[in-house]
Design a protein that fits this description.
The protein has 483 residues and is of the alpha+beta class. The protein is 48% helix and 15% strand. The chain is built from 15 helices and 13 strands. The strands form 4 sheets. Strands 4, 5, 6, 7, 8 and 9 form a 6-stranded antiparallel beta sheet that branches. Strands 3-2-10 form a 3-stranded antiparallel beta sheet, with helices on one face. Helix 1 packs across helix 4 and helix 6 runs antiparallel to helix 8. The longest helix has 25 residues.
C-alpha cells in the first residue's frame, strides 16, 4: 500500500519498494481520511459532557429545572474549550498518521503530552497485554541527541564510555521509556544505557494516562492487533502482479520493429532513412511490422484486474465503488450502499471508541487550565461519533421508514392528528446528532406568535386607523386614575 509508512530499514539511503499499482495507497489514504473525520470531526465535538446520575438525582430532588439548564450551559462551554484546544494543538496531523498506521500495520502507540502528541510506530515500541487485552507493560524506543538529556546523567555515561569516546561527541543515544501498569496507575520511567534518567519517573491514573496503545482489531490471546489490509492481502497481491503483467506487456507491445524481406526489391536503407511523405522505389509486401498476438490474453487479465479493483474500492469505501454502472442511479441508492459499506467498520469503531476516543478525550480534558477542569465524579464524557453515529443513523432510517409507511397506509390526515411533531423532530435531530437546545419554540413563544398573528389579521380587517384608535383606548384604560 504505502511502503514509506513502515520501511524495513530507516535512514537517508533507505530504498523503498516501488509497487506497480497505486490503488492500495489511494484506498488507505481515502479510508484514513474518512476515519479521521469520523473520530475527530471538523467544526463539531466528537464527545458530549454528561452529568452523572448523582448530579441528575440531586437536581431532580431540588425540583429546579433552571439548575440543570445552567449545568448544561457550563458543560457546553467546556466542550467548546476542549475542542478549541484540540484544533490548535495540531493533533489532527498525528491522528491522521495514526489511522494510516492502524490500517496498514494494525498498531500504534500515542503519547498525548502538553508539549505535543507523538506516534510511535510498530518498530518503535513493544507491548505486553493481559488475557483481557489491557496493557501490562510497554516500552517505547527513540533516538535523541545528548543535549535533551539532563546534565546529571552525562558524567555517568562518560564514565561508562571511558576515555575512548566523549558523551558530547555522540550524535544520538537510545532513550527507552517504560510504562508499567500497577493496579489503577501507570508508572513511567526512562533509561539510557541501562541507567535511569533523573526526573523521568511519573505516575498517572490508567484512565488519564498520556500513553495510549492502539490496535485495529482485537485478537484473543495476542499482544498486538492485526491490520485492515491483512484481510485484503489476497486482492492487493493479485492486483500488484496483474498490473505488473499488463504494464510489462504494454511496454513490449509498444515497441515498434520493422522487418524487410531478404531478397526483396525494397532495401533496408530505404526504410530507415526515409522521412514521412517521401517517395521511394519498393514493394509494400517486402516490409512488415512485429505484432503481439496477445490481445485476448491481455483482455482476460484486464477483466480480472477490474473485478479485483472493484472489490478493493468497496473495501476502502471509495466513492466510485458505491455507484453501479447504469444510466440512472438514484441518490438514495448511493446513500444506502455507502451506509451499508460503512456499517461494516462497526467493529473497528467500537475499538476506536473504547481504546482511543475516550482515553484521548479524558487526557485532553485533564490538560485544560486548572480553573476549567471537570469536577471529579460529577461529569463524564460520552463519545457521540463512530459506532454511536452508526447507531443513530440506523434510528434515523427506522424513523423515516415508519413515517413513510404510516403516511402511505393511513394517509397524511391521520398522521397529522396522531403524531407528536415536536417529539418526532427531537428524535430525528438526535439521530442526526444536532443539539436541539433553543431550537424549538417554547409554549410562551408559541402563544406570543399566535397573538401577533391575531393582531395582524385584525389589522388587515379593520385597517390601520382603527387599530391606532384601539391602541389609544387600551392605553387610556391602563393609565392610573388621578382620583
Amino acid at each position: 500500500t504505502i511502503p514509506a509508512l513502515l520501511p524495513r530499514t530507516r535512514g537517508a539511503n533507505t530504498k523503498l519498494p516501488r509497487p506497480y499499482q497505486s490503488l492500495g495507497a489511494h484506498g488507505v489514504n481515502n479510508l484514513g481520511s474518512k476515519l479521521l473525520m469520523t473520530v475527530l470531526p471538523a467544526n463539531a465535538p466528537h464527545f458530549r459532557l454528561r452529568p452523572t446520575n448523582k448530579v441528575t438525582e440531586d437536581v431532580e430532588a431540588q425540583n429546579d429545572p433552571e439548575m440543570m439548564t445552567q449545568i448544561e450551559d457550563k458543560l457546553s462551554r467546556l466542550e467548546r474549550e476542549a475542542m478549541e484546544s484540540i484544533e490548535t494543538s495540531g493533533d489532527r496531523v498525528v491522528i491522521h498518521e495514526t489511522m494510516l498506521h492502524l490500517l496498514v500495520t494494525g498498531n500504534g502507540l500515542l503519547n498525548v503530552a502538553k508539549e505535543g502528541t507523538r506516534l510511535y510506530h510498530l518498530d518503535r515500541f513493544v507491548i505486553k497485554r493481559d488475557p483481557e487485552g489491557r496493557p501490562l507493560k510497554m516500552i517505547a524506543w527513540e533516538e535523541v541527541t545528548p543535549d535533551v538529556l539532563p546534565e546529571a546523567i552525562q558524567p555517568r555515561i562518560n564514565e561508562e564510555l571511558g576515555s575512548t569516546q566523549n558523551f558530547k561527541s555522540i550524535k544520538t543515544v537510545d532513550l527507552y521509556t517504560c510504562i508499567r501498569t500497577d493496579g489503577k496507575f501507570h508508572r513511567v520511567h526512562q533509561e539510557v544505557n541501562g541507567m535511569s534518567v533523573p526526573e523521568s519517573h511519573g505516575t498517572y491514573p490508567v484512565e488519564r494516562s498520556p500513553w495510549i496503545p492502539l490496535r485495529f482489531s482485537r485478537i484473543d490471546g495476542e499482544d498486538y492487533g492485526r491490520a485492515f489490509v491483512d484481510g485484503l492481502y489476497g486482492d492487493l497481491h493479485s492486483a500488484e502482479y496483474l498490473t505488473k503483467a499488463i504494464v510489462e506487456g504494454a511496454l513490449a507491445a509498444a515497441k515498434v520493429l520493422f522487418f524487410v524481406r531478404p531478397g526483396g526489391t525494397t532495401r533496408i536503407d530505404t526504410v530507415t532513412k526515409s522521412n514521412s511523405g517521401d517517395v521511394r522505389a519498393g514493394h509494400a509486401d517486402d516490409v512488415s511490422v512485429l505484432q503481439m498476438e496477445k490481445f485476448a490474453d491481455f483482455r482476460v487479465a484486464k477483466d480480472t484486474l477490474d473485478t479485483i479493483e472493484t472489490r478493493l474500492a468497496r473495501a476502502f469505501l471509495m466513492n466510485s465503488s458505491v455507484q453501479r454502472d447504469a444510466e440512472r442511479v438514484t441518490r438514495e441508492e448511493i446513500r444506502f450502499m455507502a451506509q451499508e459499506l460503512e456499517t461494516g467498520l462497526g467493529g473497528f469503531y467500537s475499538i476506536l471508541s473504547e481504546e482511543f476516543q475516550l482515553p484521548y478525550t479524558r487526557r485532553r480534558l485533564d490538560m485544560l487550565p486548572s480553573g476549567r477542569k471537570l469536577p471529579k465524579g460529577l461529569v463524564r464524557p460520552a463519545i457521540v461519533t463512530g459506532l454511536e453515529a452508526l447507531g443513530r443513523g440506523n434510528d434515523l432510517d427506522k424513523l423515516d421508514t415508519l413515517l413513510a409507511g404510516a403516511i402511505q397506509t393511513l394517509g397524511p390526515e391521520v398522521i397529522s392528528s396522531e403524531l407528536n411533531i415536536k417529539d418526532y423532530l427531537s428524535r430525528r435531530a438526535l439521530a442526526i446528532g444536532i443539539d436541539v437546545q433553543g431550537l424549538f419554540k417554547t409554549e410562551e413563544q408559541k402563544q406570543q406568535a399566535q397573538q401577533q398573528g391575531q393582531m395582524m389579521q385584525m389589522a388587515e380587517k379593520l385597517g390601520p386607523e382603527a387599530m391606532r384608535q384601539m391602541g389609544k383606548m387600551n392605553a387610556t384604560e391602563g393609565a392610573p386614575s388621578n382620583g
